[in-house]
Write a structure and sequence with these properties.
about 425 residues, alpha+beta, UDP-n-acetylglucosamine1-carboxyvinyl-transferase, Chain, 2 domains, 4-stranded mixed beta sheet, 23 strands, about 25% strand, binds uridine-diphosphate-N-acetylglucosamine
């Protein structure tokens, strides 16, 4: 199994270009099925999740071409088929085929989605949404069969502002009869990106980015085109890295507006940085202040940035706390951080970090995608050579991570 070898302690300088958002792209590929013939998605990141989604598109008889991150999808001969479990289990986002196949064929057959093991992650809100639109859902063991004679717009209130449920209901409702209103919708930028794509296909959607989204269903959608928005989680990860070990490190092609909660928290920690329209320039901070973090839905502090931020807080001068409110089990990576020398205590969903602690290299196991990012940052600041095992999880979400880090002076490589 390949490992990541990281030699810590090198200051990082130069530019890092941010890729298209994983969480947008993984919704936009399934969304392309809503088009009668053609669609185009620009700025698609080269990550493992996209490779698997393309395999699912092949199963559904879609043709596609990808050149320089531009993906053209031809759905003229789209056919419905059960999504093979060995593909759907590779990632969370396979659940978006529920919404799009339901919209196109009034039937979807797919196993429970995969994704990082960071909590129970039920999909009951997705199911309730489909049922409200008129679908009947049968669950046989791990398999979901979702069928509808017809889909009719409905008024849906989400008990929790779930990203996945909001997008899935938007996708299904886009070809339903009449109007759907989603109340307590999630407001993440990725939802706006997907709505922009649907609008480009001719779908009438308003309110994306707010808590109330209105969708007018249409019989025919086509010629969708969209540029995947910058990955705010990737951008935040590298900005935090800059605060730990940067020297005028410039993180480019990001959207500053999507980073407000993270940038505000960095300022609270006494970390300074320069912002331009779509870049952040940041250097190593020699006195990081402790802080308290509560993860929230957007525009609050993102749960996906909690792990890399904890690596930063291991270097802060005092005691910090992190309350994880989105997932029940998102501190597994702190066991690996401890092997490097960090001092943390986990009590259910509260983590206490005692800083500052010097970190020294070790052999570590990556438990999940963002936990893996936290360990990469830790390896970059630790003394000695750190080895990370189970790195396919990191490659699921960070495009060209080794190349990007090598280009700014990190000593990092994949070894067999
Ligand atoms: C998406 C992101 C993920 C991010 C998360 C929160 C993708 C592919 N993944 O995941 O990176 O961490 O948003 O920002 O975009 N829940 C239920 N029932 C449901 C749906 C969700 O109880 O039907 C719970 C989940 O168990 C979890 C919480 O709600 O505890 C958040 O889930 P949700 O916002 O749906 O996240 P995902 O779409 O899975």
């Amino acid at each position: 199994m390949p490992k990541l070898k990281i030699e810590g302690g090198n200051l990082l300088t130069g530019n890092i270009q941010i890729s298209g958002s994983k969480n947008s792209a993984v919704a936009l590929l399934p969304a392309a099925l809503l088009c009668d013939t053609k669609s185009k998605i620009l700025n698609v990141p080269k990550i493992r999740d996209i490779e698997y989604l393309l395999k699912i598109l092949e199963v559904l008889n879609c043709k596609y071409e990808i050149n320089n991150q531009e993906l053209e999808i031809d759905t003229t001969n789209l056919k419905n088929a059960p999504i093979p479990e060995n593909l759907s289990e590779q990632m969370r986002a396979s659940y978006y085929f529920m919404g799009t196949l339901l919209a196109r064929f009034h039937r979807a057959e797919i196993s429970f989605p995969g994704g990082c093991v960071i909590g129970a992650r039920p999909i009951d809100l997705h199911i309730k949404g489909f049922e409200a639109l008129g679908a009947k859902v049968t669950i046989i063991k791990n398999k979901y069969i979702i069928e509808a004679e017809e889909l009719k717009g409905a008024h849906i209130h989400l008990d929790f502002a779930s990203v996945g449920a909001t997008i899935n209901i938007m996708l299904a409702a886009s070809r339903a009869q009449g109007q759907t209103i989603i109340e307590n919708a999630a407001r993440e930028p990725e939802i706006v990106n997907v709505a922009e794509f649907l609008i480009s296909t001719g779908c009438n959607i308003t309110g994306a980015g707010s808590s109330t989204i209105k969708i007018e269903g249409s019989n025919s959608l086509d010629n969708g085109i969209i540029k995947v928005c910058p990955d705010r989680i990737e951008a935040s990860t590298y900005i935090i890295m800059g605060a730990l070990i940067g020297k005028n490190l410039c993180i480019k092609d990001l959207n500053i507006k999507h980073l407000e909660a993270v940038l505000k928290k960095l300022s609270e920690c006494g970390i300074s940085y320069e912002t331009k329209e779509n870049e952040v320039i940041i250097s190593k901070c020699n006195k990081i202040l402790p802080t308290t973090i509560v993860t929230e839905t957007y525009p609050g502090f993102p749960t996906d940035i909690q792990p890399p931020f904890v690596t930063l807080l291991t270097q802060s001068e005092g005691i910090s706390t992190v309350l994880e409110t989105i997932y029940e089990s998102r501190f597994k990576y702190t066991e690996s951080l401890k092997l490097l020398g960090s001092k943390t205590i986990t009590e259910q969903n509260l983590l206490t970090i005692y800083g500052p602690t010097p970190l020294a290299s070790n052999n570590l196991y990556v438990p999940d995608l963002r936990g893996g990012a936290a360990l990469v940052l830790a390896g970059l600041i630790a003394t000695g050579t750190t080895y990370l095992d189970n790195i396919s999880l990191i490659l699921r979400g960070y495009e060209d991570i080794v190349e990007k880090l090598t280009n700014v002076g990190a000593k990092i490589e994949i070894i067999e």
